[in-house]
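Backbone-to-sequence.
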């Protein structure tokens, strides 16, 4: 299976999940200088960059294993750049992570929200 459709499915699931948690989605698949941010959102008075990783249940690696210090640094740069382009957004910044594991039939096995993985 190509990772792009799996990733997009995971982002759809994450978006709906975050909205149920009270997040207001601002942008998805936002391309900037250093790469792409899956989701920019507001969580009350905090601007949040959300990294989403989706894996299949039989994958030997968990989605959480993809959180590297390099990825955190890139997300920090991205959220600062996004904030500079959108000065009216809140000054409080956070990076969250949503890990998704899907069953073979592409239904949800588990979803894990980790708030404030960096900053």
């Amino acid at each position: 299976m190509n990772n792009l459709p799996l990733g997009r499915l995971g982002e759809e699931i994450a978006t709906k999940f975050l909205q149920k948690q009270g997040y207001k989605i601002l942008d998805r698949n936002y391309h900037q200088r250093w790469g792409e941010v899956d989701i920019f959102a507001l969580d009350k008075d905090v601007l949040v960059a959300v990294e989403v990783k989706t894996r299949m249940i039989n994958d030997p690696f968990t989605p959480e294993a993809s959180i590297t210090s390099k990825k955190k640094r890139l997300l920090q740069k991205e959220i600062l750049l996004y904030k500079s382009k959108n000065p009216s957004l809140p000054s409080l910044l956070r990076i969250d992570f949503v890990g998704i594991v899907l069953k073979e039939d592409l239904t949800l096995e588990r979803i894990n929200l980790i708030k404030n993985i960096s900053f």
